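User: Just a sanity check before I run the rest of the batch. Below are the structure tokens for the first item. I only need the designed sequence back.
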């Protein structure tokens, strides 16, 4: 193997490992939702959130302390945005867990899958990004798919479907804020604020909802906390190994796992119309990611030419 081909093949290998890590992370996220659905049938959502954030905050502190001094990690360039980001995600996670009491896992994720489309729309006013007609067309198709899934105005429409859509909106805003703060703040800083803000919020709320737990509930809480930590570690690792724009389409694997787990453990079967809507949403999201990848390559090429102009 020549020296010129080795770096390319090494990067290919890293990208494949990153994709595999992300796919496994999506399986863990879907498993996490299945356990959440089981626990919320007999436990307050606030209690579940408190235990999960307690363990996750410990993990975030431990992970960040291995990279640098904790005093430095808490020093954010965007402290108010980081706190807002933490408040958004803890609220979204609690609302998501609440919805799982009434919606199937697969049904919840088919609605939630529209969040990348919302990110594309909101990135224009918030981040000042430009979106061309092709991506606008993809967003329109994706939202048609979302309408097919939630079926507003029909006899089968559930208000919880709109709540699930609210979760997608909150998660989209969370992602946009994350994208903004990550321009100056490190991954460790964002991870710390994610864990600590969520823990403080749930700590303030838990006295009003705490109830005695059975041994079975304690066991499942420990399992879901460990799965949460492992899934985030895999997510971090995947982003270290491969570019985010390449990884984005593989996030949709969570919908596949949600369908399989929902059918296996809860007997969930999605209607044909829901599957058609999900296909439109996923197809739109993948196309948008593809366009972003192409535009990023064009931008890099132009930048390279500007920095290293050809000799006259």
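Assistant: Here's the designed sequence for the first item:
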């Amino acid at each position: 193997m020549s020296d010129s081909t080795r770096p390319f093949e090494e990067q290919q290998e890293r990208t494949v490992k990153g994709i595999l890590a992300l796919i496994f992370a999506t399986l863990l996220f879907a498993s996490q939702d299945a356990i959440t659905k089981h626990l919320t049938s007999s436990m307050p959502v606030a209690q579940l959130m408190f235990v999960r954030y307690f363990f996750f905050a410990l993990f975030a502190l431990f992970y960040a302390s291995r990279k640098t001094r904790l005093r430095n990690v808490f020093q954010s360039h965007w402290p108010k945005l980081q706190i807002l980001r933490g408040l958004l995600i803890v609220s979204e996670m609690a609302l998501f867990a609440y919805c799982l009491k009434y919606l199937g896992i697969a049904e919840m994720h088919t609605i939630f899958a529209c969040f990348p489309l919302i990110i594309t729309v909101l990135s224009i006013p918030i981040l000042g990004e430009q979106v061309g007609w092709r991506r606008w067309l993809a967003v329109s198709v994706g939202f048609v798919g979302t309408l097919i899934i939630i079926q507003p105005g029909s006899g089968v429409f559930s208000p919880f479907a709109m709540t699930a859509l609210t979760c997608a909106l909150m998660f989209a805003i969370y992602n946009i804020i994350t994208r903004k703060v990550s321009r100056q703040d490190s991954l460790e800083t964002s991870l710390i604020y994610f864990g600590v803000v969520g823990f403080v919020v749930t700590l303030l709320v838990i006295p009003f909802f705490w109830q005695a737990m059975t041994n079975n509930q304690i066991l499942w809480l420990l399992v879901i906390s460990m799965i949460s930590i492992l899934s985030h570690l895999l997510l971090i690792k995947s982003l270290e190994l491969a570019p985010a724009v390449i990884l984005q389409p593989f996030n949709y694997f969570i919908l596949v796992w949600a369908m399989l787990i929902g059918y296996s453990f809860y007997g969930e079967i999605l209607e044909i119309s829901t599957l058609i809507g999900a296909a439109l949403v996923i197809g739109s999201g993948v196309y948008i990611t593809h366009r972003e990848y192409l535009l990023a390559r064009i931008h890099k090429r132009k930048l390279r030419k500007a920095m290293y102009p050809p000799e006259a």
